Predict the structure.
Amino acid sequence: TLPIVAIGVDDPVAMGLAASVARPGGNITGVAAAFGGLLEKRLQLLKDIVPAARRFAIVFNPVSVPPKALADFVTKWEPTLGVAMSLAEVRGPDDFDAAFATLLKERVNGVVFVADPMIWAERAKLGELVQKHRLPSVWGGAGYLEVGGLASYQGDWAAVFYRGTALIDKILRGAKPGEIAFEQGTKLELAVNLKGARAIGVTIPQSVLLQADVVIE
C-alpha cells in the first residue's frame, strides 16, 4: 500500500489513525493541526464569547472521531468549563436537520465543530444552519468562517503543510512512515467573524478581539 501523510488532523491517536504520536505504526505519519487540548480551547473560546451559556454541543463525524473518546472528554470537561455538553453525530448532510432539531430541543447555546473532511465539504450547509438558528459556533479553520461561523481556533495551516512536505521528503528518501513521529503544529491562529456575529445578534467581547490574529469585518 502507498504511504500516507495525514495533514491537519486534530488528534491522530484519538481518531484511530496512529498507535501513538511517537511511533504511528502501519503505513502512516503526518502533521496534526495543533497541539493537544485544542477542543478544550475552542470550548473555552465559545464560553468567553457566550459567558452566560449553560449548554454547548460538539458536532462531529463518528467515522473520524470515536464517540467514546468524546464522551469521556465531556465527562471530564463539563465541570471544568461549567457548562453541560451535548454530542451530535453527523455522518453526512442527511443527518444535519435532525441533529440540529435535537440541539434546539436541548436548548444549546453554542456549537463547536470537530474538523473533518465531511464537515469541510458540507460547511456551507452547516453554516446556514448555525445562522438560521442563531447559534454561536467555533470551528477548526478560518476557511469555515466564510459560511457564517463565528470564530475559529486552529493550527497555522501554512506551517502545517510546510512540515508535511518535509515528511514526504523523508519517505522518498527511504524512511518508513510508521516509524516517523507524528508532528504537531506549534502556532495557533484565532480568527473572529464580526460580520457573522452581527448576523445572529452576538457581540464579540473586546478581550477576544484583542487576542485575534484575523478579524473579518
Summary: The chain has eight helices and ten strands.
